[in-house]
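TICKET: design request
STATUS: open
ATTACHED STRUCTURE:
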C-alpha cells in the first residue's frame, strides 16, 4: 500500500503532507496524542475552517498590494437579517463605485458576527479608505492594510475565533455568539482564486529525516513528523516563497578576487 504526498498551493504559501494510505486511497488517522480530532469535533471543525480561510487569504490578498481589512459597525442596534441586508447593499455600492473609478473588480471575504452587536469584518482588495467610510454610512468604520503576520495565520485565527460557551457553562467575555448549525462561516466574491491541490504517490516511502523546502522556498519551523494509528510515518510542513534577491552584476572573477582579499 502506497504513501502519498498532498501539496496545497495558496499564493506564496505551500503546505505539504506525506502520509500512508489504504488500498482505497483513504488516509489513516493519526495516533492518539497527535490526532487533532481527539480534542473534539467542534474544535476540529474550527481548525479546518481556519485552514481554509488562511489559504483563501494567501491566494487572493496582500498587504504589499494595499489590500484592506475593514470592520463595519452600526450606530444603532440591528437584527441579524437587517445586518446581512445592509452589508449586501454596501458591497453593491462599492462595486458600482470601483467601476466608475476604473478600479479592478472587487474581491472580498465577509464574516458577519454578533459580539454584543452585529458587525462585519471584510477583507477586500485595495481602494481609497475614505471612500469606504463614505459608502458605508451606518456607523463607525475601522480600516487598515491586511496584516500578513505568519502568512495570515493571525488574521485567520482572529476571524474564526472562539464562540460563547453553552448555557451549561459560563460565557466567555467578549466572545462572539454561537454560530447556527450549518450556517456559513463567511461569504465571498465568486472571483476568488482557489488554492491548488496536487496529490501524487511517493515511491520510496517516508523517513524521519527533517523535510526540505522546494527550490525557491524556505521551510517554516512548525513542521511535524509522527505516526498514524498503525505506526506508519507521516510528515507535514509549510514553505513560503523566497523574495527575489537583487541582481549582482559583478563578474565571477571579480567576486573571487574580493573574497580572497
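STATUS: resolved
RESOLUTION: sequence designed for all positions
ATTACHED SEQUENCE:
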Amino acid at each position: 500500500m502506497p504513501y502519498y504526498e498532498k501539496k496545497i498551493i495558496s499564493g506564496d504559501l505551500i503546505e505539504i503532507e506525506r502520509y500512508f494510505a489504504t488500498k482505497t486511497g483513504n488516509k489513516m488517522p493519526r495516533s492518539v496524542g497527535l490526532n487533532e480530532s481527539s480534542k473534539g469535533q467542534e474544535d476540529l471543525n474550527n481548525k479546518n475552517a481556519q485552514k481554509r480561510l488562511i489559504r483563501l487569504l494567501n491566494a487572493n490578498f496582500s498587504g504589499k498590494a494595499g489590500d484592506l481589512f475593514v470592520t463595519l459597525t452600526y450606530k444603532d442596534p440591528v437584527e441579524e437579517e437587517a445586518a446581512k441586508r445592509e452589508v449586501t447593499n454596501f458591497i453593491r455600492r462599492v462595486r458600482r463605485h470601483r467601476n466608475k473609478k476604473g478600479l479592478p473588480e472587487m474581491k472580498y471575504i465577509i464574516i458577519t458576527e454578533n459580539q454584543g452587536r452585529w458587525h462585519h469584518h471584510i477583507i477586500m482588495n485595495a481602494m481609497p479608505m475614505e471612500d469606504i467610510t463614505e459608502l458605508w454610512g451606518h456607523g463607525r468604520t475601522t480600516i487598515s492594510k491586511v496584516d500578513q503576520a505568519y502568512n495570515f495565520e493571525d488574521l485567520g485565527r482572529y476571524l474564526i475565533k472562539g464562540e460563547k460557551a453553552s448555557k451549561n457553562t459560563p460565557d466567555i467575555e467578549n466572545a462572539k455568539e454561537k454560530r447556527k448549525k450549518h450556517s456559513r462561516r463567511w461569504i465571498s466574491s465568486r472571483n476568488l482564486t482557489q488554492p491548488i491541490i496536487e496529490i501524487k504517490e511517493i515511491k520510496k516511502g517516508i523517513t524521519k529525516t527533517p523535510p526540505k523546502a522546494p527550490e525557491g522556498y524556505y521551510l517554516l519551523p512548525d513542521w511535524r513528523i509522527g505516526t498514524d494509528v498503525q505506526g506508519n510515518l507521516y510528515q507535514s510542513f509549510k514553505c513560503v516563497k523566497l523574495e527575489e534577491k537583487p541582481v549582482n552584476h559583478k563578474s565571477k572573477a571579480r567576486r573571487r578576487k574580493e573574497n580572497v582579499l
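CLOSING REMARK: The domain at 60-188 is CATH 3.30.70.1910 (Alpha-Beta Plaits). Residues 60 and 180 are 27 Å apart (CA to CA).
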